[in-house]
Amino acid sequence: MNGVVQGFVAALNLVLQYVQEYVSILGDPASAVFGAFSEVIGDAVSVRRIAQSMHISESRPEEETRERTREERVLWVSVLAGQLKFNKETNWKSVAEDILSPPMSPAMTTDTQHPRPQQAQDLIATTPSPSPPIDRRISDEIKPSEKFLPTPTVSTDNTTARQSKATELDKAIAVLLVARGKFSMGILIPVILMLAATAAAFYDAYSRLGDRDTSLALAYCVWYSWLLILGVWGNCYAAAMNSDLARRAFSEIVHFGNERAVTVSLRDRYVNSQFWDNWAKKMSGRRESFNSDKTQSDMDNNPLTWKSWLHFCIGQFLGWCCVGVPSGAAAAIAWNTPTIGLGCRAFNVLLYGVLSFAVAYLNVLRSWLVLRDKVKKPEHSEKGYRQASTHYVSHIYWLLTFLNSMVMVLGTIFHLIGVFRTCWCDRLVWTDDTRIELNNRTHESLDHAKRYWLSTAYVSFSIVSLISLVGIVLRHNIAQTMGDWIDRCNRDEQRRREEADRLTQITRLTSGGAQIG
């Protein structure tokens, strides 16, 4: 019986978690859109640095190659774990430096790191005694660079073990890259449904030009178009990586704290990604950062600056514009649908846009207060005031978020069941000299359809399509770099196996020649 109750509670918590996320998206769309923007743009910048490092490191010396490979791994950790909640306990483990940039092993050296022919000749000239005899038939099959491999200066067993850990980390990164849901599959269903609904709305608007019902249906279709932006940039929640998988993959080098792995909501992605990005930039170029005695969470050492919060405010405005433009277009269509003026539908859409703007910046204040309480411990006299202010602001934010989501949900329901068709809704703007349109497809309706309805819808959908296209291009570039990195890992793995086999063969030949001598 207890097991059944626990299972029911777990299922209920899971459902409530998804419901809370969807309420947050509908009630605070600007934060959700900007959260998706910040995540994709941050990933694109990090992946571009990785691609540049991959291109440069192909022809650089061993030490510089190690540093660049180390930076690539740090960036991959921040990109793939960036959806996990960054907390005060997030930290590198003391063994991270050995795993991220281990000393090169002769058996695992790439072709670009072998001695060049001229170096091989120098080794011949400086060798004090000849090497043991080797079978000429087999010796001819071995490259000159393989005959004169330098002797490692560190313990071979220790080096091999550390290199093996690094290889396992690369494999873990590759597994996470492959395990992420395909972008095309993630957006396929919502994009098709949205485009199908849009095509149907435009077809009805053309075939029944001047019809008020088709005009209002077009207005609501335009209103919902911002969901297409969120679907493309957010890559859809179903395509996100499993948080437990990322935590287990990087558990060898990163301490995530004792909290359960939680995927950060879209509304909090910007602040969370800022910590991950700052953490990666600091760690990718400083060896002393891996000292477990000195390394502390960026929440203590590097809190977000005023520039980060300014970018947050600007980003919230851009996110709101992605919602405000479709909302304004929908309100304009509804306003210019006879009877001309402010009706229930136009008021519904305008109210949603205004509340979305207010909630977006209330989220900035809430995020700042919550982070302030986590980073800086207040004095005893200020503790109660700070906790109370954060508590009240958070509750006001969630109340307005819920109300705004209900504005969209209930407004849609009232539109579908015909509540907005009542005369009471038209009386919102009636005056004594108002001309009431009782007929459908009148001359005025046809004129407004050509002048306002279709043109406004076209402009709104063009803006939405352009923003979505930018997201698709960025996602494609990210996926392309991921594929290139996986291919390079496969080539390196094959090369390491071949080099290990050749080194084993050389060792056997050398030991056999020594016994013969």
TrEMBL record:
The chain crosses the membrane at residues 183-203, 223-240, 317-337, 349-371, 392-417, 452-474. Keywords: Membrane, Transmembrane, Transmembrane helix. Residues 107-121 have a biased composition (Polar residues). Residues 107-133 are annotated as: Disordered. This is Uncharacterized protein. It comes from Canariomyces notabilis.
